[in-house]
Design a protein that fits this description.
six-stranded antiparallel β-sheet, elongated, 16 strands, alpha+beta, four-stranded antiparallel β-sheet, 32% helix, 11 helices
Length: 411
């Protein structure tokens, strides 16, 4: 959530993209997509490319370290692919804080084999002739370390970082999100939001404190990432395509699907139905297309039929001896009081509207619990400290049984 959002007259409130929360949101977006891409790659590494000894001039201070030149990274990736190492990438360039030398942070996602390398030490890589390479495993911390540099010195034109430059066809994490959509289809569910998380990517809540290392490890919780823009559109479209292929029906109701797919899609079978009727969709007017689409909906089976359990119309008939019906806002139903007990006007299991002792007629114990709560409130209003009424009445002392005082006199 943005701290200082701006307001546009025709759009509404928009993020400022400059406060710390906007920056963290942008970093988390790329971290989530990079981690998602690593889940489907053969292997993944975070590589730092620096400029060292200049082979052309022999100078120890490489002239290419003065300016970020993206063509150097492009040639590096082309050499990898030319030598039989297909790879997808996430690239960020920055200037060092100490000497201001240019260098690159790259997340590499290998689609097949991996070239020879050394982990956690500088070495001369044949695909990078300008200096040193430093490789590390693509853990969540290493990926976040690389992603945070895209916002380094963002307000300084001379020291501003470069990037990110990423693989776009398809976008990063696309294959993983298609697998997530497939899981929804296999379970017969519709996605209700665009959040996703990983079991091995955790973070401690703000202000968390722990006394022991065990409490510190157990206090971390999975980070919730949010799909946005093209990633969200591809995820929803992939779910709709796979659902139509497997089930051949419309998916269950979801506000997410309605927001991203307000019109009938060309891939949901509507075009095939039009062709079978002898129509061409591009030649139809909007009104005719809507009428035909309503007719098409009537021909398709409904997977989940939803019925309202509680009618909102005011009941015409009242229970015997009941008070006039009143509206109950919490349950969104009408009720009538009979002898101090409330009867709610709702539907039974067959869908017929009748008067029930509880808002949910399937719950047999709800009426007894409700009456118990009412008696408890009455006892509290009378000043009684007993929260629950006694189940067994207290037996009165008979005249023949001796009392404690009578026994104490005999002592």
């Amino acid at each position: 959530m943005c701290i200082d959002p701006g307001k546009i007259s025709d759009v509404g409130f928009v993020a400022c993209r400059k406060c710390w929360q906007c920056k963290e949101t942008r970093i988390d977006d790329w971290v989530g997509r990079c981690v998602a891409e690593s889940k489907t790659a053969k292997a993944a590494h975070v590589v730092t490319l620096t400029y060292g000894h200049d082979l052309e001039t022999g100078d120890t201070d490489n002239i290419r370290a003065a300016v970020l030149t993206y063509s150097d990274v492009q040639k590096y990736l082309k050499l990898l692919r030319f030598n039989g190492y297909p790879v997808r990438y996430f690239v960020v360039g920055e200037y060092g804080s100490l000497k201001g030398r240019a260098h690159w942070h790259i997340c590499l996602y290998w689609q097949d084999k991996v070239p020879d390398h050394k982990l956690r030490e500088n070495f001369a890589e044949k695909h990078w002739p300008h200096g040193w390479s430093y490789w590390d495993e693509a853990s969540a911390k290493a990926v976040r370390y690389a992603c945070k540099y895209m916002l380094k010195d963002v307000d300084d034109a001379e020291k501003q970082a470069f990037g990110p430059m990423v693989s776009k066809k398809p976008p990063l994490g696309d294959q993983y999100f298609r697998q997530v959509a497939r899981q929804y289809v296999e379970q017969g569910l519709s996605p209700q939001n665009l959040y996703y998380w990983f079991a091995d990517v955790k973070r401690h809540p703000l202000g968390f404190r722990a006394k022991t290392m065990k409490q510190y490890r157990e206090g971390s919780k999975p980070v919730r990432f949010l799909m946005a823009d093209k990633t969200a559109e591809n995820f929803v479209q992939s779910f709709l395509d796979q659902w139509d292929e497997v089930h051949g029906t419309f998916p269950p109701k979801s506000k997410l699907l309605d927001a991203h797919n307000p019109k009938p899609s060309k891939d949901d079978g509507f075009d095939r139905w039009l062709l079978s009727k002898g129509y061409q969709r591009d030649e139809l007017a909007k009104e005719d297309e809507r009428k035909l689409f309503d007719e098409y909906l009537a021909t398709r089976p409904i997977l989940f039929e939803r019925k309202a359990r509680i009618p909102v119309t005011k009941p015409v008939t009242l229970p015997e001896g009941g008070t006039p019906a009143k509206w109950h806002p919490p349950s969104k139903s009408w009720f009538s009081e009979v002898g101090g007990e409330r009867l709610f006007y709702s539907t039974d299991e067959e869908g017929n509207p009748v008067w029930h002792a509880d808002r949910n007629p399937k719950n047999a114990d709800a009426a007894s619990r409700q009456s118990l709560r009412r008696r408890c409130r009455e006892n509290l209003s009378k000043g009684s400290r007993r929260l629950r009424p006694s189940r067994e009445p207290r037996q009165e002392q008979s005249e023949q049984s001796p009392s404690y005082r009578d026994l104490s006199k005999g002592l």
